[in-house]
Amino acid sequence: MGKIILIVDDSATMLLSIKSTLEINGFTVLTAGDGVQAMDKIKEGARPDLILTDINMPNMDGLELIRNLRKTPGFRFTPILTLTTESQAAKREEAKMYGATGWMVKPVMGPDLIKVIKQVLPGA
Amino acid sequence: MRITFGKERAVAPDRTVFLLTAVGKELESLRPYLEIMRRQIAGAMEVTDSSVMGVIQRINTVHELTGNQVERIQDSMETSRDLVHVAEEHSGHLHELVELVRTVIQSHLLELDGNIQRTQAFAEEIADLSEIAEVVAEIATQSELLSVNALIQAAQARGVGAAFSVVANEILKMATKAGKAAEGIRDRIGSLTEKMATEIEKLKALSEKGQGTSVSLNRIIEDLQAFESRFNASSQSLSGTIDGLHANNTQVVTNLTQALGLIQFQDVVFQRIDHVDKALLELTQHSQAMVANLADPAWEGALKPTLKDRMDQHQLFYVMSSQRDVHDSVLNGTTSRSHDGPAIELF
Q: Residue B55's closest chain A neighbor by CA?
């Protein structure tokens, strides 16, 4: 089984497209429609090796999710990448401050996405 | 009463009521007009969304099919490798066995040749004995003649030759026996020589048969070597085909990954359309507020928030620099893109 990646995005289309991108490249994928769903999965015992999250989402946005994850035992050093249309420098800085590993602005070409993931996920 | 529309100008009260009624009616029509536009956009987004989902599912199917194909070929390759291994092993054993049989046969043939040569030499020696028997027979014949001659001489000598006659008689008997013995030896040698010749012929026939078997075994070894060679060539060809398929599959994965990445454009487009949709809703609300105010005699002619206030508020809702660029370029003739960070940044 490949490394496990949790994708968080409120767009079903984006979830499916990113899930497919990762699966055909050998990763095992979990999905969540927003930050709340992502935290629920973690509480239920999911232990992803990497989290890929959108920023602008209902209920709990990506920034809050990053902040909550960093407070969750076992997720202090888990790589968290953002994949978002959001381009405000302030939000990028905020994500960095909360402990995000990297920031990617959509659209990111599939091979570039895989390259970045492999860069931050040793052994992938 | 004086009403102001844009550029300030005086309008008669009756005319004003007429104009206000007309503007009100137009603004009333603006609501369904904008609603139609919003629903058109929503419909287009829905169709796009379902189509993109369909494309992704097709991509997944393509990947699944190619993956299955590669798996099947890999299974086939594994089986072929096993087959090659078993065939090579068996071929090796068979090769060793044939080689062993050939060595044993050649060793026996050498021994057989040695036996033939020795038997031939033995037969020749026996043949030589035949000559000696001839000499013995000749000596016996001559002794016989001499003893007969001596008997005649003894008879002529009468009493003096009596003793000599006895000796001559004995010699005659001995010569007769020796002659018979020599004849017997000659017959036995002749019979033995014939038997030896027959045995030599049999040995020669056996040797020829052995040579033929050795030649057949050589052919079998050559066939086995040719089989091994063809098998190895086929195996290498199959291996090359598999490598090619793997390379093609890697390319398929890369292309599918690229195609799936391009689908992220949909999210970008939807963000912008979503903003336009919200703006159309605002415009509907704004026009409805105007309609309500037009009917209000106490209205002072200004809406709160104004359309400009609403436009300024949009700055807070933009998520993409491209949205801010359009806003800034329309209102200020400038863009803010230069303030964005890199598209991919690792902290």
A: A17
